[in-house]
Write a structure and sequence with these properties.
Oligomer: single chain
Helix content: 55-70%
Largest sheet: 4 strands, mixed
Distance between the termini: 31 Å
Radius of gyration: 30 Å
Shape: elongated
Order of helices and strands: HHEHEHEHEHHHHHHHHHH
Number of domains: 2
Strand content: 5-15%
Number of helices: 15
Number of strands: 4
């Protein structure tokens, strides 16, 4: 056959598969639920759950065994922090535990009786804080506030000691090493700003794969019933044209949802959004394509519509951990690190966060960008091979 004619025929087949797949999507309410409702609703629900991003004014009780000016000053300094708020003084630990049990406080500060005496004698004094660990956000906020107060108290005591020996405090710095903290990509130090830019990328991948597998499971059920007319466009096209046409339909269908999730949701909820739109849009193209090819490869495991829930839904938690959002990838065992490399969301999360939250350019994220194109090619080949195998098995079954 003429090579030019083969190309034209393949392109025509791809366009025909593209139109057919778009029709399948819009006429299947289950697929529309995954392709439209899930991407539209999940980012809003998740972001609302994680807002407000930080916790403040957490009530705590003070058990002051010292009852000195120094101990009262310490309690006032902690009360002045935005994270903690002094609820009340307790006469003893038993009363403080009662406040805790009744839900009035989430922490107890116990100041020992020798607190002022040890400070006056130049010794180190110890203060105990009991924290409610039911929510790590509370513990993190309390720890941050107590650390700041501890550093400030130490600096004040050092200055007083310097003054007591007749030296001006300005001649000696209470803190020889200054600390200037800058939280790149998460200036509010909030949980939503930290996790949502990665979660939305994973939502795009998982919702697309679920929809693709639902379509494949439906087609498998029809073939077992002998209803092959609806699959004629797919089966009469070449395997490469069928895979490319389907993938193109999914990517095109997901472009509006991608812009909504990656641009408008961060703007509405004031999430990190520092990168240029053109940079992350160019980056997200291979991510969507790789996700589509990944879904087409996995779709050959589906035998019923329900199989997508059995095989795909549970992977969301696995892929979340593999992406490095909750645990750094460099700390993973080699096996899981290699598995993570094969998931498009891993590289999509890494590259998008750096572009969107830290303002990196596409050139600076060449590694995840090239990995996504590599995964696109690898899963395209696997999808074509599996398409050929599936058709061969169907023809053998029909012959028998």
């Amino acid at each position: 056959m003429n090579p030019f004619k083969s190309i034209v025929t393949g392109f025509a087949d791809m366009c025909r598969v593209f139109r057919h797949e778009m029709s399948v999507i819009v006429h299947d309410m289950g697929v529309m639920l995954f392709f439209i409702a899930l991407p539209l609703a999940y980012p809003i629900v998740y972001t609302l759950i994680y807002n407000p991003e930080v916790v403040d004014n957490l009530p705590f009780a003070v058990v002051d065994h010292c009852r000195s000016a120094e101990s009262r000053k310490l309690a006032r300094m902690i009360d002045a922090t935005p994270e903690l708020e002094l609820y009340d003084y307790a006469s003893d630990m038993q009363e403080a535990r009662r406040m805790w049990a009744e839900g009035d406080v989430i922490g107890i500060l116990e100041i020992p009786s020798d607190y002022a005496q040890r400070i006056a004698s130049g010794e180190q004094s110890h203060v105990t804080y009991f924290s409610d660990m039911s929510l790590l956000l509370r513990y993190r906020a309390a720890l941050s506030a107590l650390t700041e107060v501890q550093l400030q108290t130490g600096a004040d005591i050092t200055r007083e000691r310097i003054n007591s020996i007749g030296l001006p405090a300005s001649t000696i710095s209470a803190s020889p090493v200054g600390v200037d903290t800058s939280f790149l990509g998460d200036t509010q130090q909030g949980f939503a700003s930290f996790i949502m830019p990665g979660i939305v990328v994973l939502i795009l991948q998982q919702s697309m794969i679920l929809g693709i597998c639902l379509i494949a499971g439906t087609a498998a059920e029809r073939r077992r019933r002998g209803d092959r007319l609806t699959d004629r466009v797919d089966t009469e096209s070449g395997p490469m044209a069928a895979v490319l046409g389907k993938a193109l339909a999914y990517v095109v269908f997901y472009i509006p949802a991608t812009i909504y999730i990656l641009h408008y949701v961060p703007v509405w909820f004031n999430l990190p959004h520092q990168g240029e739109a053109l940079q992350w849009m160019l980056f997200i193209v291979p991510f969507l394509t790789a996700s589509a090819m990944f879904g087409l490869t996995l779709s050959h495991l589906m035998r019923t519509r329900e199989d997508c829930f059995i095989y795909i839904v549970f992977t969301s938690v696995v892929f979340l951990f593999l992406s490095g959002l909750t645990w750094p990838r460099f700390a993973m065992p080699d096996f899981w690190y290699a598995i993570a490399d094969t998931v498009p969301a891993t590289w999509g999360v890494e590259g998008f966060i750096r572009i969107n939250s830290n303002g990196a350019s596409l050139a600076e994220q060449s590694e995840p960008y090239l990995w996504l194109w590599g995964l696109t090619l690898a899963y395209f080949i696997s999808a074509v091979v599996l398409q050929r195998v599936s058709r061969s098995r169907s023809r053998l079954a029909s012959a028998v």
